[in-house]
Structures are given as C-alpha cells and as structure tokens.
Amino acid sequence: MEPRTNQEWMEDLREPISEEALIELRQILIRGLRATLSSRVNQNLDLLVEDFVQEAIIKILKSLETFRGESKFTTWAQKIAVHVAFTELRRRRWKDISLQDIIETPDGDEYTPVILTDPAISPEQETIQNDIFSIVNDLIETELTEKQQTAIKAGMLHGMPLEAIAQKMGTNRNALYKLIHDARKRLKQRLVEKTGLSVDEVMDMFTSQ
Question: Is the pTM of this model over 0.70?
C-alpha cells in the first residue's frame, strides 16, 4: 500500500474518521515513541507508550486544522506524541517529591544549581561562576520572601516544572509565574548593584567559551 499523502491523512481523520487510518496512525506513533523513550524509561515501556499514544491521538484529532502541511503529516503527529510523552513523564517524575526534598539534600547541605555542575568548563570559569553564584545565593536568602525563595530554588535552580511547584505550594500557575517574575526582577537588580556588571556580562560568565 502506498503511504498516505498529507491530504489523505487529513481527509481520513476528519469526521467520519476512517478506522483504518486511525489504526495506522496509532501503529506509527507507537513505533516512534517506543524508539524515542526506550533509553529513558526502564519499566513498563509498552504500557506507558500505549497511554501516551492514546492521549496524543486525542490532541492530534483536535488539532487537525492547525496542520499547515510544511512537513509530513506523520512527522507533525509524532512531534505531538513526543511532547505529550515528555510532559507526562516530567509530571510523574515530580508527583511524589516534596519541595523540601528539592531545596535541600538529605544532609541539609546547600543546593547546587545544574549550571554549576558542567564538567566542560575551565577551572578559571568555574571559579568565576562559583563567585557569582555565592552572591546570588546570598541575595536569594536575604532579598526574597520565603515563598519566592522556595519557588526560585525549586524551579530556576533545580528544574522542577511550574505545574509541580504550583501544586506543591497550593497555588496556580499564573500566581506562581508572577511570584517568580518578581523574584527574578529583584535578583537581577541587586546582582547588578552588587557586582557592578550588567545582566549580559553576568550571563557571559556562564557561556562556554
């Protein structure tokens, strides 16, 4: 059988939906997601893929009219499926983790942001980064409210998704976004005052040479 064209996919997946096209799309998405997730998921891969594909198909059918034909339809559909899978995996990863687990180690040690654990940087650059982070760490502790500190440490420094932070803090995404925006604005202002450098100059310190 010849592969469906973009137009044929669109026609077959509009109401009344072709059962044959739906089955074919499902098989394509399963193969693609299984290959994509095989190195990231250690358990229940097939069950997870089935769940993600089911949700992806719902989104694809709802979004048909947004497909502009700039790529193969199946490529577009796979991107949606991958986005669905990664979003859900991130959500599940943080589901049972408390904010206290995120902002402190089991021994109560200070948190270390991912940006400072890059093995590729030079010793000189690492020293500069550590000096700047020491200033940022002090500013977080002295210039931000308790809620701002919690959100910044969990999100900016540890990569916890906004949805998970909001849920743990008992707030909503919009309120959390405003909280983090105000905190970052305050940190930038005080960092410039403290170091005498512009924001761009500070960020340059964290760019690999």
Answer: no
